[in-house]
Amino acid sequence: MKHILHLKSSILGKESSSIKLGNAIVEKIQTKYPGSTLEELNLVDIEIPHLSPAVFRTFFIPGDQLTKDEKESIRFSDEVVKQLFAADIIVIGAPLYNFTIHTALKSWIDYITRPGITFGYGENGPVGKITGKKVYVAMSSGGVYSEGPGKANDFVAPYLKSFLGLLGMTDLTVFRAEGLKVQGVKEHAMEKAINSIKID
Predict the structure, then answer these.
(1) CATH of 3-195 among 3.90.320.10, 3.40.50.360, 3.90.180.10, 3.40.50.2300
(2) CA–CA separation, 91 vs 63, rounded Å?
């Protein structure tokens, strides 16, 4: 039995291809691991504030030295970090907007990046502390970015692999629903994406 955390970052709601793909990934995980629990978090709906200078400074203050107001200012960060550590499998919906991720997903990343908690520093540089997780990315895009001319403009998959890897989440697989606006490709894009899902 696994605990699954499904993050959604699409602005399209029920019409979202990344959410549909993410749901399909979750279903296949639940099939492989019957009895698994699911926690869902729609990052767009909760309107995460962008990281402020005051909150950022608070990240570097030892917990026993925080004031009541400072503790309240990082309460959301503490909650999402706790969620992340509690999950065995993380499914991240990541539609490609203007070649990169939505600001809601970027804000979530900013709030889970906690020195001394989710990463630290060793003799050879940063060391991730969120280990032992399996991450699946449900990526959607109007064009084709896995190959061809569009590949150079994919700042979703490489960024997530690099940064989540920095925090210790190195076991990451990307499934793509792509070409959703391309004639001759879009007709079978979702079917192809769902059929590509393989759960380790």
Answers:
(1) 3.40.50.360
(2) 30
